[in-house]
Design goal:
This protein has about 800 residues and is an alpha/beta fold. It has 29 helices and 31 strands. It has four domains: about 45 residues; about 220 residues, Rossmann fold (3-Layer(aba) Sandwich), CATH 3.40.50.740; about 230 residues, Dimethylsulfoxide Reductase, domain 2; about 150 residues, Barwin-like endoglucanases. The strands form eight sheets. The chain has a seven-stranded mixed beta sheet with strand order 7-18-19-20-5-6-31. It has a six-stranded mixed beta sheet with strand order 26-28-27-30-25-29. A five-stranded parallel beta sheet has the order 11-10-9-13-14, with helices on both faces. β27 and β28 form a beta hairpin. The longest helix is centred in the first third of the chain and has 18 residues. Bound molecules: ligand MGD (2 copies) and molybdenum atom. The site of one ligand MGD has 36 residues, from α19 and β19. Belongs to the prokaryotic molybdopterin-containing oxidoreductase family.
Length: about 800
Amino acid sequence: MTTRRTVLKGLAASAASSLLGPSLLTKSAEAATSSAGTWRLTGSHWGAIEALVKGGKVAEIKPYENDPNPTDMVKGIKGVIYNPSRIKYPMARADWLDNRENADRTTRGDNRYVRITWDEALDLFYEELERIQNTYGPSGLFAGATGWRQTGMFHTCINHMNRGVGMHGNYVRKVGDYSTGAGQTILPYVIGNTEVYSQGTSWPVILENADTIVMWATDPMKNLQVGWTCETHESLEYFDEMRDKIAAGELRVISVDPVRTKTNKHVGAEQFYVNPQTDVAFMLAIAHTLYNEGLHDEEFLNIYTLGFERFLAYVQGEAEDGVEKTPEWAAPICGVDADKIRDFARIMAGGRTQLLFGWSVQRQQHGEQPYWMGTIIAAMLGQIGLPGGGVSYSHHYSGIGVPQTGASMPGAFPLNLDLGKVPEHDNTNFNGASAVIPVARWVDMLLNPGGKIQHNGHEITFPDVRMAVYTGCNPWHHHQDRNKMRKAFQQLETVIAIDYAWTATCRHADLVLPACTQFERNDLDTFGGYSNTGVIAMHKLIDPLYHSKTDFEIFAGLTKRFGRSEEYTRGMTEMEWVKQTYETTRSANEGRFDMPSFEEFWEQGIVKFDRGENWTRHADFREDPEINALGTPSGFIEISSRTIEKFGYDDCGAHPKWMEKVERSHGGPMSDKYPIWLQSCHPDQRLHSQMCESDEYRATYAVQGREPIYMSPEDAAARGIEDGDIVRVFNDRGQLLAGARVTDDYAPGVVRIHEGAWYGPVDASIGALDTYGDPNTLTIDVGASKLSQATSANTCLVEIEKFEGDAPPVTSFGGPTEVSL
Ligand SMILES: Nc1nc2c(c(=O)[nH]1)N[C@H]1C(S)=C(S)[C@@H](COP(=O)(O)OP(=O)(O)OC[C@H]3O[C@@H](n4cnc5c(=O)[nH]c(N)nc54)[C@H](O)[C@@H]3O)O[C@H]1N2
Ligand SMILES: Nc1nc2c(c(=O)[nH]1)N[C@H]1C(S)=C(S)[C@@H](COP(=O)(O)OP(=O)(O)OC[C@H]3O[C@@H](n4cnc5c(=O)[nH]c(N)nc54)[C@H](O)[C@@H]3O)O[C@H]1N2
Ligand SMILES: [Mo]
């Protein structure tokens, strides 16, 4: 099959100059640059953008003209490039530079840094790697953290670090991620695939065939503003269609969420408030209703699933706790009237129903359970594999549901060693400890070297880690329970952070290396997420600012210290890598999708493929469950799992169950002391912590210079809090200041502070007041269960009070205090 390609025009002048390099710049290109400036196209998590570059500076940034739904966040990009928080040159923590592994580690975070040269910095980096490998071996080094590196396939900074450090020696790595840790662990046992990172039924199929869409704990219009690769925002168009269909009475959409979401406000869905963290009780009562009213699909359960009887005995109260999971049982837990629960079950069974789950609801204690229940309800409805029916766990992410073109996309810089090569320190002896740990357990690892935990059927032994290297991630935003973390960090003799901005991670590091931003390098990227819409050229806008370097240059410099720079770079320059990556993609698509020469591509900016075909998830399984068996142990949907049962865990058993949380609002544990549930969802106006530093943009949402905390009028009034007040939010783990935003989008007892707010404690002491409003100052750091050991960030209770007196200034931004030794 050959598909016509559409090449989008424009932006040619800028592109050509980037390709040729400075020495070959033509006179006309230079002239264009000097007067009116040049518009250059590049890609980003926030979509394709065009930047006006004048006199070597970015003067203006606007969304790519063909972006159908640009995000407001584009307004924040310029403020990221030019920002007082940029890391200008390599720096070392004052106490550490003096005393290295004998330095006082309790002063980490006091923000005193000494400027050093790149040569000194890379020598120190290398010396520390040597010292750790020689003293402790690979179990002494943790370099496995990952995060939302800026876009661009070649410059993917995580790969640069893994390859560069990996050439020197082995180290402790992580498995899983913060996004979907519980979901990606449970669903392969239940439905044979992580589901969270898999293509879903095409939106046009859903919108055409579904009678009811249940948006369960999901806010796609907020979360689809960004993508893992260059976002096209094609998927956002479907929400206009959804809105129109609801208005025309052709579609019913119900949002099950303790908050009225951005998506709901756009499409006008029915709001179904449920008490936080109680979805499983609600779902068990739905299952009870479906079964006892004969609304379930017996035939589907017989043909496609295993283990229903056992689950049913639990629901009917004939086994285990002996409690029948009636709507009357669930109502006081989940806060939904028994009759409304029954209605809900009947609506779902009354027509074609598509369940769409977000990820937040599995980022809580026992986060596996609501996901498992989601599949069971869909199986009881018997619509899995039908167009507009069944269950999805991914339609809010990176263009999932936009029909996929099927084209091959560019690959990233190789993170592994070249074939047949071994690291300088080829030691694979981890001293009896595990070489891979579940990602969200690294603070427990630091606090309990030699300690053991269960994980997904295996025992993990925590290594004795002494050094950590972080790049493309910000653990002092992404991990839970700041004060526990501060203590754990004292275990580390050396922390190296590579970033372009002075994040809290850099402020708690010993050696800080300035990478440049993606706008200061040439690259290419997938255009669109799972849609594989095309390939985009990422034209460098300006040269690296200050003394910053690309991650490629940084690790070329590090590997040079042990004589392996050539192998690291393969003797190729940035542009040679970009071109080679493009050519590899072009060959992979040969005969299927035409792609122009590299030179043409670079000039044109975007190669777009024809839209893919509509597709229905699990249709093949429905068609023939023997030939197209699922990846579960049995090949069928496992409503009960013998494999999980054999692990013998008390917090994730043979089938999903309602389990109480260590902290739960609305009458649950700890709610006497801390009555309010804090959810730390993903920000509408940031990508995690990225862009928080962008001052002008932050001013559009901050409240008296603090991160907003959204709360209901009832909770505000009960505490004498008014919209715009500074409040103190606290629990036994920590305290922070935030700015009150009072809105009836939030149910009473439910508040939100978006994750990614920059941590800014008043001082470096344990328990210090955070002046800006990082919710992870308050969140709990426990594993979701022994199965996944995932983050439980959304299991968190707090109390709030109006802050009286003079609020301390925000300390999060603007970089370190420079001192000299
Ligand atoms: N309470 C709570 N916590 C959460 C979550 C939650 O819902 N609630 N969500 C979790 C989830 S799902 C996620 S994915 C994580 C996100 O956690 P992270 O991925 O750690 O968050 P980011 O803010 O994107 O951090 C990326 C860092 O990399 C830097 N960076 C970007 N590009 C480059 C580059 O090219 N080179 C270098 N050297 N550095 C670069 C950025 O400046 C930034 O500091 O947070 C998790 N934490
Ligand atoms: N703008 C923007 N978009 C992003 C990101 C970003 O940082 N900014 N990050 C990206 C990444 S890395 C990820 S992992 C995804 C995250 O995607 P998700 O985890 O799905 O997103 P969240 O915004 O955290 O939460 C979605 C909804 O879940 C609801 N919710 C939370 N807890 C419960 C509960 O107990 N029960 C019910 N019924 N509802 C609940 C919240 O109220 C919210 O409306 O987003 C991606 N998209
Ligand atoms: Mo994530």
